Amino acid sequence: MTPILAFRIQELAHGGLKPETRAKLQEITSSLNAKGQNDARQRFKAGTRLVREWKGKVHEVTITADGFEYQGETYKSLSQIACLITGTHWSGPAFFGTKRGKKG
User: What is the top-level taxon of the source organism (predicted)?
Assistant: First the structure.
């Protein structure tokens, strides 16, 4: 807690981060979030089909350059589709079997 308070005091005294620094940090954060969020899109080529059976029904997702296509609609993440299919929160990569195993 002390480092957080010390940073806040310093920020108040000296004006905080420059707008350029904030923009660069935001850019880095967005880049990291995009990499994690679209892991399947980075690992598989556009056009790859992911197939999963759920409660007796087969569900097919196609990876596109813009996201993931499911039943004629484009989604930004596999998790959105997994939630739509199951009606509950699911990790899309886990649901469709694209989740990477732990290294070791």
Answer: Bacteria
For the entire predicted model, the pTM comes to 0.59
Rounded Cα distance, 61 and 50, in Å: 5
pLDDT tens sequence across 57-74: 999 999 998 889 999 999
- Sorted by where each begins, the domain ranges of the chain are 2-37, 40-96
- Write the Ramachandran bin of 95: left for phi over 0, alpha for psi from -120 to 50, otherwise beta: alpha
Buried b / exposed e over 57-89, threshold 16 CB at 10 Å, is eebebebeeebbbbeeeebebbbbbbbebeeee
